Automatic annotation (TrEMBL):
<dbReference type="Pfam" id="PF05231">
    <property type="entry name" value="MASE1"/>
</dbReference>
<keyword id="KW-0812">Transmembrane</keyword>
<keyword id="KW-1003">Cell membrane</keyword>
<feature type="domain" description="GGDEF">
    <location>
        <begin position="459"/>
        <end position="578"/>
    </location>
</feature>
<dbReference type="InterPro" id="IPR007895">
    <property type="entry name" value="MASE1"/>
</dbReference>
<dbReference type="Pfam" id="PF08448">
    <property type="entry name" value="PAS_4"/>
</dbReference>
<protein>
    <recommendedName>
        <fullName>diguanylate cyclase</fullName>
        <ecNumber>2.7.7.65</ecNumber>
    </recommendedName>
</protein>
<dbReference type="GO" id="GO:0005886">
    <property type="term" value="C:plasma membrane"/>
</dbReference>
<dbReference type="InterPro" id="IPR035965">
    <property type="entry name" value="PAS-like_dom_sf"/>
</dbReference>
<dbReference type="InterPro" id="IPR000700">
    <property type="entry name" value="PAS-assoc_C"/>
</dbReference>
<dbReference type="GO" id="GO:0052621">
    <property type="term" value="F:diguanylate cyclase activity"/>
</dbReference>
<feature type="domain" description="PAC">
    <location>
        <begin position="376"/>
        <end position="428"/>
    </location>
</feature>
<feature type="transmembrane region" description="Helical">
    <location>
        <begin position="114"/>
        <end position="140"/>
    </location>
</feature>
<dbReference type="GO" id="GO:1902201">
    <property type="term" value="P:negative regulation of bacterial-type flagellum-dependent cell motility"/>
</dbReference>
<dbReference type="InterPro" id="IPR013656">
    <property type="entry name" value="PAS_4"/>
</dbReference>
<feature type="domain" description="PAS">
    <location>
        <begin position="302"/>
        <end position="372"/>
    </location>
</feature>
<dbReference type="Pfam" id="PF00990">
    <property type="entry name" value="GGDEF"/>
</dbReference>
Length: 578
């Protein structure tokens, strides 16, 4: 295994350099019509495809192999040994820079899949060659009779057009996309694509062979048709067919291209420009169609998941228009609302909401339309709610179009009745003492703070602090269970002497407090005396058959509306000890 890996690592750069040498040598041999820079250059397209389809760790060996191949081909078939090193540097710099830009701004993307990576590739190819071409033109203008401007133009035309036509095709070939497409496509699609490619080849052959009419636009029709039917795979294949047929006609010096009264170099540039226009007609269309095809597949998958969730979930799912009317209602509406889903279509969603909560629901929908990127929640009661525990929660988010404008709202509505009941039970447990049923210390202090804030003008309220007398002896003589029974019975004996708006709380141990609202100190003192008699006159009967008479000491203060709850309790405590 290790020896085979070493052999593969050694053969890979040799193969890469060999292919680069053959392509560059062929280009230099056949297209240096004026003795300067080659008019056709596909070797760098091969190196760019190699870099874009391989890991960065393998870039150096590929670049070194192609650099050596470039130097040898330039020395043997190009401008000679003097130009070998500078042209080598320019060639590998172009390929490496374009590949690096594509990896940086379109990472992990095939440049054929959508317009963004394709646009990045075209911009990088044109920009880099515009700069690198300056160096190549300086070399060529000093070593050959070709001028600087003409050399720069030949470099840009040959390298840009060669990269545009060859790189996408080579990337797909190296990644095995054509093989995967052929295996995945149905037999009908394969036969249809092959037929269209044959039609394109036959049409292109006839157009290039005849010399009577300028019909080079005719192959563009099957070219676009293949792009629509077979996507970027067919578009790339059609470029290969068009380049092969046109190139063969050009080499044979027969047909329409041979009749153009210009130099061979100009004819070559004309043919490359023709292929470039065909590229810009077919491949961007195919990339856009491919993006839309993937988007359609994603939408179809999303729609399938949405349907499964909507039709088999206990939560209600509603689609509302911008006017608030229902466009879709899930089957669970029948169970939750008691109405068939189809009968709700066209009705206002607010009609399902309790009249007291419709403003909340309308405001939530309005916020969803104004901020479509956010998720909005609101709790409300349905129109058929019979008590305050029958609550539902709506989660809403806007549906947007391609411009980001809201076109409707998707809502999921969940029954929160059990949650509300649990929440209320937890609140009840947190706000009441489990042993006596009196308010807990925190709940009583909160109520006291609220009452202090209410005190103003003629409003008077008092706080009464109670401490059971000799409670420790009850625990010592009768046990803690008896003590617990005494505490519970004590609160029960207090309640008949209190009004509904009064509040009794257990502060800890045998210490209690009572908030007497809307009573001054004189009235509260009378209430305290009445409570004392009620408690003392009714002993607590224990399970042992014994009875315990309960008395308490009390401290009473009137709320001043300034001091906080802790200060008021401290004042009541001092009054109790007095």
């Amino acid at each position: 295994m290790r020896s085979s890996s070493r052999l593969l690592a050694l053969c890979a750069p040799l193969l890469t350099g060999g292919v680069y040498f053959l392509v560059s040598a062929l280009s230099l041999t056949m297209s240096r019509f004026e003795g300067g820079i080659a008019f056709i250059w596909g070797a760098n397209a091969f190196l760019m495809a190699e870099l874009l389809t391989s890991q960065r760790a393998h870039w150096l060996r590929a670049i070194m192999a192609c650099a050596l191949a470039s130097a040898i081909s330039t020395a043997l078939f190009g401008m000679g040994p003097v130009a070998a090193i500078p042209m080598m540097l320019l060639n590998v710099a172009e390929s490496a820079a374009v590949a690096a830009i594509c990896r940086r701004y379109a990472p992990g993307r095939n440049i054929m899949l959508s317009l963004v990576p394709l646009g990045v590739f075209v911009a990088a190819l044109c920009g880099v060659n515009g700069l690198v071409g300056v160096g190549s033109a300086l070399v060529a203008s000093n070593l050959t009779p070709v001028s600087f401007g003409q050399s720069w133009l030949q470099w840009c035309a040959g390298h840009i057009l060669g990269g545009l036509v060859c790189t996408p095709v080579l990337i797909m070939l190296m990644q095995g996309e054509w093989v995967r497409w052929f295996q995945a496509a149905s037999r009908r699609i394969r036969m249809e694509t092959l037929g269209l490619l044959f039609l394109l080849g036959a049409t292109a052959w006839y157009i290039f062979q005849q010399d009577h009419y300028p019909l080079l636009f005719v192959p563009l029709l099957p070219l676009v048709l293949i792009s629509f039917r077979a996507g970027h795979h067919g578009a790339a294949a059609s470029m290969v067919v068009l380049a092969t047929v046109g190139g063969a006609s050009f080499v044979l010096s027969d047909g329409y291209l041979s009749k153009i009264a210009v130099s061979p170099g100009a004819k070559t540039q004309f043919f490359q420009i023709y292929l470039a226009f065909s590229f810009f007609l077919s491949l961007p269309v195919a990339a856009e169609l491919n993006g839309r095809r993937r988007l359609f597949q994603m939408l179809r998958d999303s729609e399938a998941r949405y349907r499964i969730i909507a039709e088999h979930c206990g939560d209600m799912v509603l689609n509302l228009g911008v006017d608030g009317r229902i466009h879709y209602a899930s089957p669970s509406v029948l169970e939750q609302v008691g109405c068939a889903p189809e009968l709700l279509i066209g009705q206002l969603g607010a009609d399902l909401i309790h009249r007291k909560d419709r403003a909340l629901m309308t405001a939530a929908c309005r916020r969803a339309l104004e901020r479509p990127q956010d998720i909005h929640r609101v709790e409300f009661r349905l129109f058929r709610a019979v008590d305050d525990l029958e609550w539902h929660e709506m989660v809403a988010r806007a549906v947007v179009d391609e411009q980001g404008e809201a076109t409707g709202i998707v809502c999921t509505i969940r029954d929160m009745t059990r949650h509300k009941a649990r929440q209320q039970a937890l609140q009840q447990a947190a706000s009441h003492d489990s042993l006596t049923g009196a308010a807990s210390r925190s709940a009583f202090l909160e109520r006291l703070e609220t009452e202090i804030g209410r005190i103003k003008g003629d409003i008077r309220s008092c706080v009464l602090l109670l401490d059971l007398d000799h409670f420790k002896s009850v625990n010592d003589c009768h046990g803690h269970a008896a003590g617990d029974r005494v505490l519970g019975a004590f609160v029960e004996r207090l309640k008949p002497g209190l009004r509904g708006r009064d509040c009794v709380g257990r502060l800890g141990g045998e210490e209690f407090a009572i908030l007497l609202t809307d009573l001054d100190i004189r009235q509260a003192s009378a209430v305290c005396e009445r409570l004392r008699r009620m408690v003392a006159d009714e002993p607590v009967h224990l399970d042992t058959g014994q009875s315990v008479t309960v008395t308490f000491s009390a401290g009473l203060v009137e709320l001043d509306g300034v001091s906080d709850a802790a200060a008021m309790l401290e004042a009541a405590d001092k009054a109790l000890y007095r």
